[in-house]
Specification:
Elements (H helix, E strand, L loop, with lengths): L1 H36 L14 E7 L9 E6 L2 H12 L3 E6 L16 E12 L5 E18 L4 E7 L8 H20 L5 H8 L4 H8 L7 H9 L3 H32 L5 H16 L4 H15 L4 H16 L5 H15 L12 H11 L4 H17 L7 E4 L6 H12 L3 E5 L7 H4 L12 H9 L5 E5 L12 H8 L8 E2 L6 E2 L5 E6 L7 H5 L2 E4 L5 H19 L7 E3 L1 H10 L7 H19 L6 E3 L4 H5 L17 E8 L2 E8 L5 H4 L11 H6 L4
Parallel strand pairs: 1-3, 7-12, 7-13, 8-9, 9-12, 14-15
Antiparallel strand pairs: 1-6, 2-5, 3-4, 4-5, 5-6, 10-11, 16-17
Helix pairs in contact: 3-4, 3-5, 3-7, 5-7, 7-8, 9-10, 9-11, 10-11, 12-13, 12-14, 19-20, 19-21
């Protein structure tokens, strides 16, 4: 313990000494600034300026000496630097930052050559920004960053400018002045007083520094001129820039004259864009439109399309480049290109071909269904041995609630593929399957390609739900449109009306579901391998309830096994007396209803475990809804037991017969109730 206390005491003393040293250093810097403020400052070149200056990084411009200019300051560090200058010598260092997008520049992000500027006026705006009027004094070199918080404080060093005069310098002065005058006369947007000021200058360095800010140069170009200390070399650089600027203005003038001659005033926007394009091409730059075209070209190459879609995409891209952005056609082409590059032409998931693991997943998710599971495992076995196999078209046919859709998800999980589902119930428009023609407003691809794009892979497990509930009307027959998509011999070149290029669907594993097979057209049914789902018997329903439904509902309602349990006899009674179905959908609803009532008690503060027994069902669900067993427990005269069967399940019924006198009934047999034509034809007279 004493040793630890000694260490803490020593650390505290070290921290205090460091703070004291920092305070002394800040005091020395402040004193040096105050001493520099008292220095004489008559002429800009001869004024004695402080070596320590607050720094304001300039984001998008480069300022030169001998300029009076406004500056909007918004960043917190820059505002504090202005405040420090006003409290001290009223001098600032302005230096450009290397990257325009850098919001909080570090020392390495700032150029090492800048100018010293004197603050003439400061105006604070209510939104927090500061407007500063400055006068550029002279060039300086940034030598050292003394602090970065709360603002930049740097040490500077004056630079020597080579301003010798001679015949060559005089020739350069005249040449630069003449070129600048020509640029102003040809139409450059420069104030006349600027030209008068330039014509009256005879100092070569000041002439170059005065002309450069009026030219449309990038920050890097202006910085290069600022850092050029030799006056002759600086005038040489400026002369080259002026020649290029004059050529650009001449080209712009010719373009304007030519385009205005060919086009009317209604296409003024197009003229301006053509001028901008020509100027940017001369400068070697691309506008935002050009960048978008380059981006689409890169996406087309990265999509790894087959030859036909790739040629179509490049052709549409050429049309897009030639179409004016304001044209409605431009938006249509852009949407088409987005669909082309967004489809997974080559992206696919790696399949899981482990037979044992796939069988374990199927058994984990579903009880029973041996025929279906065997068919999936057969598909996996052939795929594993052959290496490739056209996607099988399976049709799960059976009553509602037997697990057709959920089995599709399990198949996708067993294969390691993406799962997508599209419900076809009520679809009556052929365009829902094969897309709209691009001549229509709001055209888009059909549901098949929409879902594949959403999946992001070209080999998903694709479930088409309720295929027996497709309709048709004057807009076409959707079931006929499905023939190509679901035919393994044709879907290798599936053509959507919107894309108009083939898309390979052979690696897609299509699964359809139906309650009835009769409404499905024979041609479409012929494309599919039908697997019938029979209803579950009582023992299967019990196993499903115990292994799947009860745990799922307990979890979904925020309960645990310590709070709720079902006795097996209660589940049997629930199956017999409260549900009558081929599947287990209503059984799951009744279990969920009991879970909700238990959850309400638990939310009210009851923590005792609830065990649902047979005698509790009436309190939770009311009286029993169905009778279990044969139609009649005792034999009765005039009554017989019959069997009723539908696609949704079956039941036993009691058929009653009443005898009447032949005299009053004229020997006719009377049948009552809802009887079908077959039963009516089967009656016999005695």
């Amino acid at each position: 313990m004493p040793r630890a206390s000694a260490k803490n005491k020593k650390a505290a003393e070290t921290e205090a000494a460091a703070a004291a040293a920092t305070a002394v250093l800040q005091g020395d810097l402040l004193e040096e600034l105050e001493d520099a403020a008292d220095s004489p400052n008559d002429d800009n070149e001869s004024r004695v300026l402080p070596d320590l200056l607050p720094l304001v990084p300039i984001r998008d411009n480069v300022y030169f000496p001998h300029m009076i200019f406004p500056l909007m300051v918004g960043r917190d560090k820059s505002v504090k630097a202005v405040d420090a200058a006003m409290e001290g010598s009223r001098f600032l260092l302005l230096a450009a930052q290397r990257q325009l997008v850098t919001e909080d520049p570090e020392p390495d992000d700032i150029y090492r050559m800048g100018i010293v500027a004197e603050v003439l006026q400061v105006l604070k705006i209510p939104d927090g920004t500061v407007r500063v009027m400055l006068e550029g004094i002279r060039r300086v070199r940034l030598m050292q960053f003394l602090q970065t918080e709360p603002h930049f404080l740097v040490r500077t060093e004056p630079v020597e400018v080579n301003d010798e005069r001679g015949v060559e310098i005089e020739a350069l002065i005249r040449s630069v002045t003449k070129q600048f005058e020509e640029i102003v006369n040809v139409g450059k947007n420069i104030p006349p007083e600027a030209l008068i000021n330039v014509l009256n200058l005879d100092d070569p360095g000041r002439l170059a520094d005065t002309i450069t800010p009026y030219l449309s140069l990038r920050v890097e170009q202006k910085q290069q001129i600022l850092e050029t200390l030799d006056v002759r070399e600086r005038l040489d650089q400026l002369g080259g820039v002026l020649v290029k600027e004059f050529e650009i203005l001449e080209i712009q003038k010719n373009i304007r004259a030519r385009v205005e001659k060919e086009m009317g005033s209604t296409q003024r926007e197009f003229i301006l864009r053509e001028q901008l394009k020509a100027i940017q091409q001369e400068l070697g730059e691309r506008d935002e439109r050009g960048g978008e075209i380059d981006e689409y070209r890169e996406k087309i190459e990265a999509a790894n399309m087959p030859e036909i879609p790739r040629e179509r995409a490049l052709k549409e891209l050429d049309r897009f480049e030639k179409t004016p952005p304001a044209s409605p056609e431009s938006g249509i082409i852009r949407t088409y290109l987005d669909w082309l590059v967004g489809l997974p032409w080559s992206q696919q998931t790696d399949e899981r071909l482990d037979m044992d693991e796939a069988e374990a997943i199927l058994n984990e998710d579903h009880y029973g269904l041996p025929k279906v599971k065997e068919r999936i495992l057969e598909f996996l076995a052939v795929r594993k041995l052959a290496g490739t196999l056209k996607g099988p078209i399976l049709c799960f046919a059976g009553p509602p609630g037997v697990g057709k859709t959920s089995l599709g998800r399990s198949i996708a999980r067993a294969l390691g593929r993406k799962f997508i589902r599209v419900s076809l119930g009520g679809v009556r428009d052929e365009a829902e399957i094969r897309g709209h023609r691009r001549t229509y407003i709001g055209a888009m691809p059909g549901r098949i390609l929409q879902a594949i794009k959403q999946a992001g892979h070209r080999n998903p497990v694709f479930m088409l739900d309720e295929i027996d509930k497709i309709g048709n009307d004057f807009r076409g027959d959707p079931s006929a449109a499905l023939l190509e998509a679901l035919d393994p011999e044709q879907n290798g070149e599936f053509s959507d009306h919107y894309l108009e290029v083939p898309f390979d669907l052979r690696d897609v594993m299509f699964i359809t579901t139906a309650n009835l097979l009769d409404p499905i057209p024979p041609a479409l049914r012929d494309r599919m391998e039908v697997i019938n789902f029979t209803g579950y018997i009582e023992d299967e329903k019990l196993k499903i309830a115990e292994g799947f439904l009860v745990p799922k509902q307990i979890k979904d309602h925020g309960l645990t096994d310590e709070l709720l349990a079902f006795e097996q006899t209660a589940l049997i009674r629930l199956i017999r007396d409260y549900t009558r179905e081929a599947g287990v959908r209503n059984l799951e609803r009744e279990i969920g209803s009991i879970c909700r009532k238990v959850a309400r008690k638990v939310a009210g503060g009851e923590t005792q475990k609830t065990t649902v027994r047979i005698e509790d069902l009436k309190g939770y669900l009311g009286g029993r809804r169905f009778h279990y067993g044969v139609a009649e427990e005792n034999d009765e005269i005039g009554a017989a037991t019959g069997l009723v069967y539908t696609e949704a399940g079956g039941d036993t019924v009691s058929i009653e017969v009443a005898l009447t006198r032949a005299a009053t009934n004229e020997g006719r047999l009377t049948l009552t109730g809802q009887l079908g034509d077959v039963m009516k034809e089967s009656r016999r007279r005695r």
